[in-house]
Amino acid sequence: MTSDIFFFIAVGFCAQIVDGALGMAFGVLSTTSLLAFGLPAANASAMTHVTEMFTTAASGLSHAYHRNVDWRLVARLAPAGMIGGAIGAYLLANINGKVIEPFVSAYLMAIGLLILYKAFRPPTRREVRDWAVPPVGFCGGMLDAIGGGGWGPVVTSTLVGRGHDLKRVIGSTNFTEFAVTLTISLTFILTLGWSELNSAIGLIIGGVVAAPFGAILVKRLPVRALMVAVSMVIITTSAMRIF
């Protein structure tokens, strides 16, 4: 697959630009692209998360530098997300890829619909003490591992929908995602082995190059228009794989 390195670089770059600006969608966009490229569901999710070890670190540091991170929110999200992510990765790695692939595509399409719904939902303000933060982190981590993406769409969308400050949520979920992704990636490596994940290098290159730009774009781009565009891409590609 070395001849396709530029495809993986392009996927990683585009997905990370969107993720850094929106606080979601790197996993769902890259996994959807890899599934369309013909990779098994477990391998696509594993490659995405190995890549995200690098992109989330770069993106999280960029958001911290621009003061978009709420450290209290990070402290409540990270432990629950790591536990959920490890459980989801272990389950996916031990399920037949052909069996799980239609369900993964259906899940990704549901995430696309969720993003579209959240784009037009009026926000209501809530505090970081919100009781739902740890459960949302746990579910986000588990679904992220199983679907190859979903931490941002589930966690960011839910917390923004519950009234948390948009920019703080985007920065905090991006920063927290590194810990969640590291846990998921280590679980995949222990169960699948590294030899199955060599092609992640292209995604890593594209994602790391794009990461610094996301934190800048989050202050400049209209969030609703970007959410609608991302949801349309995810819904369309996932529906094609299902039908």
From TrEMBL:
Membrane-topology annotation of the record: Multi-pass membrane protein
InterPro entries, sorted: TM_pro_TauE-like, TSUP/Inactive_protease-like
Transmembrane segments: 6-29, 73-93, 99-120, 175-194, 200-218, 225-242
Name of a matching Pfam family: TauE
Keywords recorded for this protein, A-Z: Cell membrane, Membrane, Transmembrane, Transmembrane helix
Origin: domain of life: Bacteria
Subcellular location(s) of the protein: Cell membrane; Membrane
Main location per the UniProt record: membrane
Entry's Gene Ontology cellular component terms: plasma membrane
Protein family per UniProt: Belongs to the 4-toluene sulfonate uptake permease (TSUP) (TC 2.A.102) family.
Protein name, per record: Probable membrane transporter protein
Organism per entry: Rhizobium lentis
Origin organism lineage: Bacteria, Pseudomonadati, Pseudomonadota, Alphaproteobacteria, Hyphomicrobiales
